[in-house]
Amino acid sequence: MTAKKGVIRRDKGKQGLGNKYHSIRRSLKARMGEASSLDGRWEIHKELQSSPRNSAPTRLHRRCFLTGRPGANYRYFGLSRHVPRETAHACLLPGPVKSSWQ
């Protein structure tokens, strides 16, 4: 089960924008915290909003490393729940044992 190629490509583009604008957004947010007046904070907020929408880190979605599946991902492995299960059933993962109560 794999995700559509266009969706994966779009998410990679968002990751690229996020990496490109990371330092800019971080410095603007630091300046906003140091601003003493409300008008100065408002100007910095306008600058922050002028950056591309897809450069915000909240627009990113964690996807499976192998299949590109967006849901049910293990952060530690970077894989969706299907991949470790399939590899365990194929005896490619050492350790897990399939249980049966029959």
From TrEMBL:
Described function: Binds 16S rRNA, required for the assembly of 30S particles.
Localization in the cell: Plastid, Chloroplast
HAMAP family in the record: Ribosomal_uS14_1
Organism, as annotated: Selaginella doederleinii
Subunit structure, as described in the record: Part of the 30S ribosomal subunit.
Name listed for the protein in its UniProt record: Small ribosomal subunit protein uS14c
Gene3D superfamilies attached to this UniProt entry: 1.10.287.1480
Lineage of the species this protein comes from: Eukaryota, Viridiplantae, Streptophyta, Embryophyta, Tracheophyta
GO molecular function, one term: rRNA binding
The keyword Ribonucleoprotein appears for this protein: yes
Gene Ontology cellular component terms for the protein in this record: chloroplast; small ribosomal subunit
InterPro entries associated with the record: Ribosomal_uS14, Ribosomal_uS14_bac/plastid
